[in-house]
Amino acid sequence: MSVLCLWATTAMAQPNDARVPLHLLPAEYPTPYGAPEVQSVKSVLDRVYRFLDENSASAVVDAKTGKVVTDSGAMRGSLSFDDTSFHITGYEWGVTYAGMLLASEATGEPYYADYTNSRLTLIANIAENHSTEGLRGSPIRSVLEPDSLDDSGSLAAAMIKAKMNGLDAPVEPLIENFLEYISEEQFRLEDGTLARNRPHDNTLWLDDLFMSVPALAQMGHYSGEGKYFDDAVKQIHQFSERMFNKDKGLYMHGWVQGMEDHPEFHWGRANGWAVMAMVELLEVLPKDHPGYTGVLDQLKAHIKGLVAYQDGTGLWHQLLDRNDTYLETSATAIFAYSMARAINRGYIDKKAYAPAVLLAWNAVATQVNDAGQIEGTCVGTGMGFDPAFYYYRPVNVYAAHGYGPVMLAGAEVILMLENNEFEINDSSLQLVE
Is residue 124 scored above 80 in pLDDT? Predict the structure, then answer.
């Protein structure tokens, strides 16, 4: 065969614009592309549920004998939770409890809510009967004597949600204890902004928007007292005034009052805590509250900024604006939940943002392995003012920060899928109206 004939034969075998509409050729996406089926989302939630149910504490034992204590009235003396991979009282678990409640609402399956209710009941029973003496070794010391927003806000918000969802357990004293800590004991700047004195005096941690605002918002809704709404709105405003980069649409992670300059490290999960705090506040904030419009506008500005930094895989980077940092799962799940919730509540344009949400969920789903473990989640992270600190934070399947956000994201995506129709139009995913 001549060279000319060989070239002609090869050319005829290759797709070309004269023979095939090239714009319809299938793309080699790194993440599944398109709208998932509701059942496929639920299967991911079920895997996570089973893993957590088997690996998080569900009983209290006598620390000396190792015997399970089943009588709540006998929950005294030296106690501990049963030996599992996860504790059940940290802020990460407040997110998980809320995620399980939402999964139950979205799917109609009671076992998700049972996960939350059984563990909150266990905590409440210990608190009601456990001696407050010698709390250093108590499995619920941080519940009885909170000394940080991490101890307080997330769990308080979850307890209020559970209580309003029908939880029959004595959690009211714990809720009141948490809110007293947030409102009266946590350190604040002179203008009332919630702050910490680490790593430097008068430091704002973006994380603290989530560690406070949802609890304040839920308490305002639960109690009917407007002072909680007022404080929540004030936190959003005063954090944003100091820490939000309007040009990028992103928050810096930390702000120190005593610094002349304020280095900006736009850590993914902290931005997740911020956007979720705003969504949770708008959920219950009366629309006639004078701060409602400001919070809504801030949420829209943040979501617009976040979407601009989404990676083509659907995930977001550890430092959102630095593409050479690793792709991180927990932040992506929080963004997927918050944006889906904002769509479902009508806060943002669903035609504009729903495809990004589904891409994010599809990416998150690839990070849930067959055992129900969530891969690619950054471990607990303090605050840094150099890039190496964030670039090299470890990831671990036992980083509890990823589990609640994945439950929340999947549940909210199910609700979005059930209330909207999607199609592939000219090869791209679009919402149908």
Answer: yes
> Considering only CA atoms, which of 109, 235, 223 is closest in space to residue 182?
235
Place of tokens 């509701």: 38
- What number of other Cβ atoms are within 10 A of residue 66's Cβ? 10
Check residue 177 and report its DSSP letter: H
Listing DSSP states for 164-176 in one string gives: HTT--S--HHHHH
DSSP string, 3-52: HHHHHHHHHHHS--TTTS-GGGSPP--SS--SPPPHHHHHHHHHHHHHHH
pLDDT-derived band at 365 (thresholds 50, 70, 90) equals very high
| CA 48 to chain centroid | 15
- Rounded Cα distance between 356 and 310, Å, is 8
Q: Distance between CA atoms of 398 and 377, rounded to whole angstroms?
A: 9
Given a cut of 80, whether residue 5 has pLDDT beyond it is no
How many angstroms from the chain centroid is the CA of residue 285? 20
Reported as a single tens digit per residue, the pLDDT across 75-112 is 777 888 998 999 899 999 999 999 999 999 999 999 99
Q: Using alpha carbons, select from 166, 83, 175, 198 the residue that is nearest to residue 124.
A: 175
- Residue that the structure tokens 């399980």 belong to: 100
How far, in Å, CA of 236 to CA of 238, rounded? 6
Question: Mean pLDDT, to the nearest integer, of 132-146?
Answer: 79
Are β-strands 316-317 and 254-256 bridged in parallel, bridged antiparallel, or unpaired? unpaired
**Strand 79-81 and strand 316-317: pairing?**
unpaired
Contact yes or no for 242/255 (Cβ under 8 A) = yes
Instruction: Calculate the CA dihedral of residues 31, 36, 39, 42 and round it to 10 degrees.
Output: 60
Beta strand 79-81 with 60-62 is antiparallel
Q: How many Cβ atoms from other residues are within 10 Å of residue 329's Cβ?
A: 28
The whole-angstrom separation of Cα 154 and Cα 138 is 20
List the one residue out of 55, 47, 115, 158 whose CA is nearest residue 398: 55
Prediction pTM value: 0.95
Contact between 69 and 128 (Cβ < 8 Å) = no
pLDDT at residue number 2: 57
Contact between 243 and 204 under an 8 Å Cβ cutoff? The reply is yes
**Structure tokens given for 329:** 């799962």
Dihedral angle, C-alpha 86, 91, 93, 99, nearest 10 °: -150
Distance CA 177, CA 342 (A): 31
